[in-house]
Protein 1
Amino acid sequence: MTETGTTFEIEDRHGSGAYGKRPTALVRGEGVYVWDEAGRRYLDATSGQGVAALGHCHPAVARAISEQARTLVALHESFYNDRRAELLPLLDSVMPADLSRFFLCNSGAEAIEGALKVAKLLTGRAGIVAAKRAFHGRTTGALAMTWTPKYRKPFHEWLPLVTHVAYNDTHAARAAISQETAAVVVESVQGEGGVHPGDTEYLQALRERCDETGAMLVIDEIQTGFGRTGKWFGFEHSGVVPDIVALAKAIGGGLPMGAVCWRRAHGPIGRATHGSTFGGNPLACAAAVAAITAIRDEGLVARAAANGGWLMDELSALDLKGIRVIRGRGLMVGLELRGRVTPVLKDLQACGVLALPAGLNTLRLLPPLIINRDELAQVIGAIDEVLG
Ligand SMILES: *Cc1c(COP(=O)(O)O)cnc(C)c1O
C-alpha cells in the first residue's frame, strides 16, 4: 500500500521532528547542482552539509559503489578485506607526519566519540578541554564538547564534565590544560560556530601545552578535512601535528563514514576497547578510495585554495550593506550579517543558490571543491542581489 500525501506531508507525519526543514524536496543531483521535484535546479553551495566535496554523483564514486555493491557489502572488521587494505594506506598517504593508525566508523559524532576513547586509553586520564562556539556532534560525548546551550542543556545530567574555554584564547587554554587533561579538542576552523579560523599561534600553543602536560591534542577535521580549506587538513595551515584527528563528512564520497586517526608513535589501542558493526565495511571503503583518489588526482586541494581566495576577494569587493565581516579559509567561507541569516538563506534559494547558516547571524558557503569560477560567479551574483 502506498501512503497518500505529498513528500512533505508524509515526512512530517512520520519524521522525528528533530529537523527544521526547508519546504523543498530535492530528488536528484549532478556535479554542483541539485533538482527539486518540480525540476527546478539549484546550485548547491552546501555540498549536502560539507559531504559532497566532489559534487553530487561523481562518476568514479558512483562506479566504485555500484561495483562493490555487486561484490561484497556486509563484512565486520573482525575479518580482513581487500578494499579496507586499499583505503588505509591511501588515508596514510594524505595524512601528514606519522598519523597512520585508523579506527573506521560511520559518522562525525562517532569519530569524536572514538577520539575521546583513544585519548582516554592512551593517557589513562579523564579531563576534557574544548572550545566555546565548538560543534562536535550530537551523541553524548560529542554533545558534551559542543558549545551551543540549546543543543546541550536538555541532556546536561548525562554529559561528562568538559572545560570550555574561548577559541583562539591562548592564555585561557594554557590555564585550563593540566596533568589531568586527557584531550584538548578543537576544530581547525570552527564551522557551525560561525566560520572562525584557528590562529597559528593558538594551535601552536595548544601543541606546546599538550607536550608539557602529556594531554592529547585532538583536532576535529570533520568539516575541514580532505581539501576544504585549501590544504588536505585544516591544521596543516599552522604546521602543528595533532595526536588524534577526527574525520568524516567528505571522506566517503557521500556514503556515511568517519574515522579516528592517531600517530603511529602512540601504538594501537587494546583489543575490544572499541568496535563498530558497520565500521570499515567494504562498500564505504570502496567509496572512500574512489573519493580520496579523485580529490588527489583532480588536484582539488590546490583548486580549493585558489578558488577560495578568489571567492573571498570577489565577495570583499562587493558593496554589501548587510555584512559585518567575511571570514574563511579555502572554500569554507562565512559572511557575518548584521541581522538574522534565515531570511537571507530563503532569498538565496529563490535565486537558485543553496547556502548554510553558521549560528544565527552567519551565512556559510561550503560549495563542492569541483566548482568552477562561472559557477562561483552565480553564487556571488545571488549574494550581491540579496545583500547588495
Ligand atoms: C558535522 C560535524 C560533526 C558531526 O558529524 P555527524 O556526522 O553529523 O555526527 C562534528 N564536528 C564537526 C566540525 C562537524 O562539522
Protein 2
Amino acid sequence: MMLVRINMRSALVALCVGVLLLTLFWSRCGELSHRPISSTIGSVLSNALSDRGGGEEIECLINGEYSVACRRDRDQVYLPFSFIQKYFEVYGKITSTDGVDRFEWSHSYSKIYHPKKKYDPRGTFTTFENYNVEVRERVKCISGIEGVPVSTQWEPRGFYYATQIAQFGLAHYSKNITEPEPRVRIMDDGEKVLGNWIVSKDATISREYDSELKANVLKFSTSELASSQVWLKVNITQDFVLSLNIMFKPNSSLTVVLQNKDKKETVYLHYVTSNQLIYAQDDHIYYGIGTETRWRRITRDLIIDMQKGWALQDRPKLKSPRNKFKISGLVVSGRGAVAGVRVSTSEHTAHFFAAAGWLVRAQRARGGWPVPARRHVAPGAADLRPGWHSAMSQGHGISVLARAYYRSGDSTYLRAAQRALLLLDVPSHAGGVKALWMDKYVWYEEYPTTPPLFVLNGFIYTLLGLYDLHVIEGENSISLAKKMFDDGMTSLKTLLPLFDTGSGSFYDLRHFTLGISPNLARWDYHATHVNQLYLLAGLDPDPILINTARRWEGYMQGKRAAHN
Ligand SMILES: *[C@@H]1O[C@H](CO)[C@@H](O)[C@H](O)[C@H]1NC(C)=O
Ligand SMILES: *[C@@H]1O[C@H](CO)[C@@H](O)[C@H](O)[C@H]1NC(C)=O
Ligand SMILES: *[C@@H]1O[C@H](CO)[C@@H](O)[C@H](O)[C@H]1NC(C)=O
C-alpha cells in the first residue's frame, strides 16, 4: 500500500507539469484576432463555438503538412487534446472530485516502485506480487497435468514457456509474502470433517486408511452408466481455489459444479483422466489431468479454469465472477479415491512449487529450457529457430529454483539452479545465450540473435537470478553465480549510458548492432528499467545506477536532457 501512495504523488507531479503545456501561447499574432472569418461555414462554426464559450475556430497547420481544427480566444490558441495526445503520446482524462471536474495529464502511463528496503532473494521478487500471469490473454490455460500456464504467445496451439512459468511461480511466491492469510474451508479431511457424499444406486463408497498417504481416504466406484455418480452438495461462495489428493483409475473424473447466483447458469468443470490439455463445449469445460494412477495433489483456481474455457469459445470475459458464482457440488465417477478436499482463497505455495517442479522436470542436460516456438525478433536478424534458449528464462528459472531450495531445503532445486548457469557461458551461435560487446563485455541475451540485440530488461532479470542463487547458496561457497553476476554488473555499468535517449530509454541496442532505426522502450518497459535500476542501486553503490534511475524516472514526468 505504501508503494501505491508514493506513486500517486509522483503521478500528480507529472500532471501538474503537463497541464501547463496544454495551453499554447500564441504570441505576436494579435492583428490576426481582428480579422473576420470569411467563409460562411467558418462563421457558422465559430458562432456555434462562441455560444458555448469555446472561442472561434482557427485552422492549425501542422508542420506545413496537414491541418487540425483549433480554437482561438484572443491571443491564446487551443489545440484539441485528441491531437496533442497522438502527436506527443501523452495521456489525459477528465476526473471528478467532490463534484469538481479537472483534467489530469500524464506524460507516461507507468508506475515506479521505490524499494523500501534492500532486495532480499528470500523475499518478494521485485514487484511481482502485482503480477497475475494466469489471467493474461496469452495464457491458454493452466495445465491440468503440470499445474503451470501454457503459453500461446508465439504458437497458437500452446507450449510450455519457461519465462512465463517462472513468472507465474515468482508472482505466487511474492503474493504468499504480501497477501493476508487465505481462508481455508475443509470439505472432507477423512477425520474431523466428513463430507456427506450422496451415492447413486449402482455406486459404492468406503472410507479406508491409506498407508501411503497416512490418512483416511474416501474410495469410490461407479458403473458405466452416466447416472452412476458419487456427489457432494456444497454451498461455497467467495473462495474458489480447490485442492485435493486424488488417485484415479483410468476413465475416472472429478466434476466441479459452479452456479451463477444471478443468472441461474450452471457451469461444469470436468477434470478427466486424459492427456488432452483443454476442451470446451458450452458450459462443459474439460481439463486433462493425465493418466497417472498414483496419489497426487491437484490445486485448481476454478474461476481461472472457467474463464479460460470460455475464452476458448470466444465468450466474453465475465466481470468479477468471484462475486457472482458459487461452488454447488463435487461429483466423482469411475474408480479411485480422494482425500484432503478443501477450498481456499488462494494456494500460492502450491502454485509456486508447481512451477519449480516443472522447471526441474523439464530442464535439459545442458541446463536449459528450450523454447519450442519460432521467434522473429528484429528485421535483419535471423529468426530464432524452435529450440532456442533465453537468458531471461535461465535467470527467472534460477530465481524460482533458488527460492524453492530456500523454502524446502531440497537440494534437487539447488542443483537445477546451478545447472541453469551453464548456458549463460555458451555463445549464442553455439546454442547458448552469451554475447560480447566489443569482444569484451559479457551480455546474457534474452533473444540470442546473430548479430546480438543487447536487450536491457531481460539482461537485468538474468542478473537478479544470479544474485538470488549466489545469496541463497551461501556466501562461503565458491560461486560461479557470483562471478557471473559481477561480470554482468561490470557490463551493465559500462553500457548503461548507451541506453539513454535523453528523454527515455532504448529497449535494446539494435540500432548499433543491426544498423537499423532504434527501438525505443515503451513506457511500461522504461518503467521496468527504472524499477530494476533502483533495485540494483540498493546492491551496488556505484552512483551510475542511482543517478540513471533518477534521471530516467524524470523522463516519465516529461523532463529531458539539456540541449546545446
Ligand atoms: C504462505 O505459505 C505458507 C506455507 O505454505 C502458508 O502457511 C501460508 O498460509 C501462506 N500465506 C499466504 C498468504 O499465501
Ligand atoms: C448459501 O450460502 C449463502 C451465504 O453464504 C446463503 O445466503 C444461501 O442462502 C445459501 N444457499 C443455500 C441453498 O443454502
Ligand atoms: C475407457 O473408456 C473407453 C471408451 O469409453 C474404453 O474403450 C476403455 O476400455 C476404457 N478403459 C478402461 C480401463 O476402462
